[in-house]
Amino acid sequence: MLQGKTALITGSTSGIGFAVAQRLASTGANIVLNGLGDAGEIEIARSKMESQYGVRVIYNPADMTKPAEIKAMVEGAVGQFGKVDVLVNNAGIQHVAAIDDFPVARWDAIIAINMSSVFHTTRAALPAMKSAGWGRIINIASSHGLVASPYKSAYVTAKHGVVGLTKTTALEVAQQGITCNAICPGYVLTPLVEKQIPDMAKAHGVSEDEVVHDVLLAPQPTRKFVGLDELGALVLYLCSEGAVSLTGAALPIDGGWTAH
Hints:
Blueprint: E1 6-9, H1 15-25, E2 30-34, H2 39-53, E3 57-60, H3 67-81, E4 86-89, H4 104-132, E5 135-140, H5 153-172, E6 178-185, H6 191-204, H7 208-216, H8 228-239, E7 250-253
Parallel strand pairs: 1-2, 1-4, 2-3, 4-5, 5-6, 6-7
């Protein structure tokens, strides 16, 4: 379906981003990976994806807090592949604290990585998309882009901002063959979430199973994590011709969380 096209996915060395990259590669897209991690492990994953799906896969370690590096990453991808057809903005970090105790440096980093980087990648990728008359911009927001939770002021603010930027982008490019949508997942069992479970069990004085069911999944009526494969499938649908009129939307995939 995406044979010969190129997809750039930020924050794609693990978790949601990596799952999306694999799904797009499986349909023929060349891939630009980006994110943190052990250099050797990233190279193994890059090489395996390339050989498994018969596509080109490159890695760029651009720091999502640095606009110049973001711009250089996108321009480098355009230089190698001619354009970036699919842009998936997925990079994100989290910090939990009360507003009056929230570290200023953490606020600045979350706003930069979770929200401002979406502007910088989109700004850099749009000219080539406009020239081609085709493009798909998919922003991985969150249920917290639609509703709030206490102690997550920076994350909630950033994700609400991503939803707003998604709508503005969609309106600006509506007649140029480009769509822009936001996906708003509930809790997904990523390595980052898995690592938190033992500590949360200890802090709450309950079992790990109770943490999963009664703490993490409490907002999700299904009491199930959103699957990485589900997110990959939704991204792929948004890249399809069946979704050509779907733009400017914030799509919840959260087990009913935001239906409350």
